[in-house]
Amino acid sequence: MVQIPNPPPPEPSAARSVPTSADVARLAGVSRATVSYVLNNTGAVRISEPTRRRVHEAARELGYVPHAAARSLRAGHSRMVLMPAPSFPVGPLYSRFLGELQWALGRLDYTVVQYGTVGVHGDEAARAWAELRPVAVLVPGSDLGPPGVEVLKRSGARAVVTLGPEAVDGAHALLTDQQGVGRAATRHLYDRGRRAIGVVVPAERGLDVFSAPRLDGARRAVAGTDATVTELPLAYDERDAARLAARWRPLGLDAVFAYNDEYAMLLMRALQDEGLDIPGDAAVIGADDLMLGRLLRPRLSTVHLEMPAGRDLAALVDRAVHDPGAAPERHKVLGATVVHRESS
Amino acid sequence: MVQIPNPPPPEPSAARSVPTSADVARLAGVSRATVSYVLNNTGAVRISEPTRRRVHEAARELGYVPHAAARSLRAGHSRMVLMPAPSFPVGPLYSRFLGELQWALGRLDYTVVQYGTVGVHGDEAARAWAELRPVAVLVPGSDLGPPGVEVLKRSGARAVVTLGPEAVDGAHALLTDQQGVGRAATRHLYDRGRRAIGVVVPAERGLDVFSAPRLDGARRAVAGTDATVTELPLAYDERDAARLAARWRPLGLDAVFAYNDEYAMLLMRALQDEGLDIPGDAAVIGADDLMLGRLLRPRLSTVHLEMPAGRDLAALVDRAVHDPGAAPERHKVLGATVVHRESS
After folding, report:
1. What residues 72-101 of chain B have any CB closer than 8 A to a CB of chain A?
2. Rounded Cα distance, B48 and A341, in Å
3. Measured between CA atoms, how close is A153 to chain B, in angstroms?
4. In chain B, whose CA is at the least distance from the CA of A61?
5. How far apart are CA A165 and CA A182, in angstroms?
6. Gap between the Cα atoms of A113 and B129, Å rounded
7. Model confidence over A167-197: pLDDT tens digits?
8. Where is each HTH lacI-type domain found (chains A, B) (predicted)?
9. Which end of chain B has fewer CB atoms within 10 angstroms, the N or the C?
10. Pairing mode, if any, of strands A111-116 and A80-84?
11. pLDDT tens across B276-297, in order?
């Protein structure tokens, strides 16, 4: 960063003290309780319109903003839905899902915060999340266990929802069928006459929660047939892709499920640079059905994934918040359908 | 979502009450103040090791987690650094920057929370953020104004840092030189002998804070020369790219700065499908220096952007938190250098 010389003079406002609801009460000539009723929109108490207006004007004049934490301490819970910020590079598919979910929860008056836990995992992370007292916690693809769920519930979370291949005791589960993704891709390659099938397993940390069940699904898809599945570790860089492409002929493979469309793009380029014909020498299929697959030549075959609708997930959270004692729900998500294009 | 039948029976723990520090004090046989001293690691008071251990054991047994909000009410501020969750689709470059920043702030014992504000903008959003009483707020590419900064400071934020093309009164500023990106790309095309230069402006909402200054920089780069700059609106989909490619010859253009590498990939494919030679008929340059540009044929020229280092930004936040009355700092970030490959 380049420091720019001659900064402007200090901001005087930084030194001023933080206004409290007592200041607002004093200026408006009402009680603190009245200020609280008005600014927190408590429907329980009737307050005249002129008083209401006076409180709002005083709050505006003083720059007073209610304290969500104080309010949640009084109410016993917040409107905060906490999600751990993903520790893996987020693709366009997940970004879109997250955007929809935020929108849908926002419509139900929840606030979504993504919590950036660094170097802390599983149940230990749950303790850190619990300190913010979220009313609900949404955990995608994590290593949260029953103790972590328990910590969250004991600290007041009314709903814990996991989004991953397996359910966790005590939590609602959106069961992402990653095995189904590997199965669909591999079954497709088998049906196209391929028998020596590689499956890319990214070397990047945090992706194994997706890649391990995909590999497993690939193995199951051809179990008991004359086809083989070979695990292909691959880092997301050109050097590693070139190394793998150079080993393609010695490995005797004729097809690859490349984990997702981005790894498929990387590997397909390396195979082409190695002089291999796609799909002649190597049939390639990705997953996620990103636009980039349609921009490649040959056009990339892929597995289209049906992410859970933000609206459905928001409704599940809201149900669970209203009835925290209800039985954990289990929903299957991530329907996988093959989109056959030119690369396979 | 597919509901799976026969869910397991209700979790009994959901009905149990939330343990308080009073419960911990009772079980450990100490005062509530002692519990608070031990669990909040207050260095001010000396507490014997056996007492300390008894409190920790009681907390663990009861599943008690301290309340960050209560703690921040007592301390007067939190360790929370709030960032609005981006409202635009996040590319790999920004993802990496965010990851580094979280890591660096985590090392300084801050927690990064990304706040998902939906349908709320500028100073109104600032009020919502203020309710969480963050100790610092980092605002990338937003429409925050001086009143929003003031609201945040009055509610206890010790540092507000904006990351965008312009500084905001009262806030520290990382000034992203988006004009410089457009200027570098366009100057490169000019130097390659191009005179009829198109500049892609994405139709997607939320990107204009980047695209407008890039277009402006492009215009300035060739002001007073014999070259022209033509604004090319483009939605991120194949149909719109095909429509633009079909107009390429009538428009009489010979080069394009395609906003970033992803739009460049989309447009380059459409131009190639239209039978145009790259770079013969159309020189193409993107921005961001993503790996995908190296995977394309011809290899994509691009503008490499130097994002601010997470460590530097974290240090700035920490400085500002410790000295909230100091003069706002101004730093220039986003150094732009052209990476010339085959497409231009």
Report:
1. 72-73, 85, 89-90, 92, 95-96, 98
2. 70
3. 6
4. B151
5. 13
6. 11
7. 999 999 998 889 999 999 999 999 999 999 9
8. 19-75
9. N
10. parallel
11. 999 999 999 999 999 999 999 9
ipTM of predicted assembly, 2 dp: 0.76
Query: What's the average model confidence in pLDDT over B188-200?
Result: 98
Q: How many CB pairs under 8 A join A and B?
A: 240
Task: Just give the CATH number of B19-66.
Answer: 1.10.260.40
Closest chain A residue to the Cα of B170, Cα to Cα:
A11
- Could you tell me the two tokens for A260? 């997702």
Burial tier of A6 (Cβ tally within 10 Å: 0-12, 13-18, 19+): exposed
Residue ranges covered by each domain of chain A: 20-66, 80-176+308-333, 178-306
Structure tokens at B42: 């207050």
Predicted confidence (pLDDT) at residue A99 exceeds the cutoff of 90: no
Residue A269 CA to residue A229 CA, distance in Å, equals 22
Please state the rounded mean pLDDT for residues B50-75. 76
Domain A20-66, what architecture?
Answer: Orthogonal Bundle (1.10)
Residue type, B228: T
Q: Which CATH class is domain B80-176+310-333?
A: alpha beta
Contact residues, chain B, for A114 at CB < 8 Å: 85, 113-114, 116
Whether B113 and chain A come into contact, CB under 8 Å, resolves to yes
Chain A residue numbers touching B236 (CB-CB < 8 A): 291
Q: Which superfamily is assigned to A178-306 in CATH?
A: Response regulator (3.40.50.2300)
| Residues in Cβ contact with B60 at an 8 Å cutoff, skipping those fewer than 6 apart | none
Which segment of A20-24, A236-240, B313-317, B335-339 scores lowest on mean pLDDT?
A20-24
pLDDT of residue A297: 96
Find all residues with CB under 8 Å of B88, minimum gap 6, and list them.
Answer: B141, B204, B205, B206, B207
Quickly list DSSP for B172-206: EEEEE-HHHHHHHHHHHHHHTT--EEEEEEE-STT
Residues of chain B contacting A18 with CB distance shorter than 8 Å? 154-156
CATH superfamily of A80-176+308-333: Response regulator (3.40.50.2300)
> Considering CB atoms only, which of B9, B89, B131 is closest to A65?
B131
Q: Where are the alpha helices (DSSP H) in B40-174?
A: 49-62, 68-75, 92-107, 122-130, 146-154
Contacting B residues, span 262-281, partner chain A, CB-CB under 8 Å: 265-266, 269
